[in-house]
Automatic annotation (TrEMBL):
UniProt keyword terms in alphabetical order: Membrane, Transmembrane, Transmembrane helix, Transport
Name this protein carries in UniProt: Cation diffusion facilitator family transporter
Main location: membrane
Keyword Lyase: no
Subcellular location: Membrane
Top-level taxon of origin: Bacteria
Gene3D superfamilies linked: Cation efflux protein transmembrane domain, Cation efflux protein, cytoplasmic domain
Keyword Transmembrane helix: yes
Membrane topology: Multi-pass membrane protein
Segments passing through the bilayer: 12-32, 44-64, 76-99, 114-133, 180-197
Listed NCBIfam families: CDF
Length: 337
């Protein structure tokens, strides 16, 4: 089974489970008339819509590149979690309003034991499916699957919170615990909806992923050759599961075009084999100048003007800057034009 097929089947699993659990929760509300249970059920309706949209986004993300989408369709996964986050925020606002009214005008809760049993059952199912989706999403580098799995985790926590409210009402007879729990769940849902929206915007706006950038830099540093004098302006963009990476690599100016081509090919293959997803990498070769002699380790360099002092250690702080790294050379020797 291909990764694309695996993603789509997991997306379908999430949709089917979400639809089934919504029915269970509304049945629990029918039995209990609990505001907390209604809050949980309303939030779960969002699961159905978002799981359906996530499944569609996984289908789109798996389509090949075309003339209109030269980098593929992977960005739609960020749109998916943004859509999910927006619906969660809307649901959270409605739940907050409804819970406030329930606190002002509380009403009795019926059959809390059945409510606790049914909500605990849905929580276990959501935790199990959420764990499967999150692990698979991280393995397959799918933000849509990870987002869907995390939403199911949140839904499970909501169900557990609603169950706790029913237990408190049954134990104390204080019906206000029901409305208070719904209010807290509304706030919890709003916060997490905002976080999903924030993650969606950061992905659509190509916010730097420092973890991936650090992996690229570490791999280049670990396999560094003397001819790879310096790297700068390193950038990583994510398109769904796929990555687009580009950087500037400073190399000896006297290398032939064939030598440069071989070095660049080796760098690109080195990074591609490091990641388990499709990587499109472009390396721009910059010719060295005499200012770079003090940090260049090329043995028997025929044009060296300054003695080697030490190599620049590439890290997240210097490799992403759009400037060449230099050590201060002796002022008596002019730089190569």
């Amino acid at each position: 089974m291909t990764p694309t097929q695996t993603k789509r089947r997991l997306g379908l699993l999430s949709l089917v489970v979400s639809a089934g659990l919504v029915a269970v929760k509304f049945y629990a509300y029918h039995l209990t008339h609990s505001q907390a249970v209604l809050t949980d059920a309303l939030e779960s309706i969002i699961n159905v819509f978002t799981s359906g949209f996530a499944l569609y986004s996984l289908y789109l993300a798996g389509l090949p590149k075309d003339e209109n989408h030269p980098y593929g369709h992977g960005k739609v996964e960020y749109l998916s979690i943004g859509f999910e986050g927006a619906l969660i925020v809307i649901a959270g606002l409605f739940i907050f309003y409804s819970a406030t009214l329930s606190l002002i005008h509380p009403h009795a809760v019926a059959q809390p034991d059945w409510g606790v049993a049914l909500l605990s059952f849905t929580a276990l199912i959501n935790l199990a499916v959420g764990l499967v989706l999150t692990r698979a999403g991280k393995r397959l580098q799918s933000v849509a699957l990870v987002g869907d799995g995390q939403h199911l985790y949140l839904d499970a926590l909501s169900s557990l919170g609603s169950s706790a409210a029913l237990v408190l009402v049954a134990a104390t007879g204080i019906v206000q615990f029901d409305g208070a729990a719904a209010l807290l769940l509304g706030i919890f849902i709003l916060v997490n909806g905002y976080r999903m929206l924030r993650h969606s915007v950061s992905g659509l706006m190509d916010e730097a992923d420092s973890a991936i950038v650090s992996q690229v830099i570490a791999e280049l540093q670990a396999r560094r050759r003397p001819s790879w004098i310096d790297v700068h302006n390193l950038r990583v963009q994510r398109y769904g599961a796929n990555l687009h990476i580009d950087c500037h690599m400073q190399m000896p100016y006297y290398f032939s075009l064939e030598q440069i081509h071989t070095e660049l090919h080796d760098i690109e293959e080195l990074i591609r084999t490091h990641f388990a997803v499709d990587v499109e990498m472009f390396v721009h070769a910059d010719p060295c100048t005499f200012k770079a002699c003090s940090l260049c380790r090329m043995p028997d360099c025929p044009v060296r003007q300054h003695p080697f002092q030490h190599a620049v250690e590439w890290n997240l702080g210097n490799a992403v800057r759009n400037e060449r790294h230099t050590l201060k050379p002796p002022a008596t020797v002019a730089d190569k034009p």
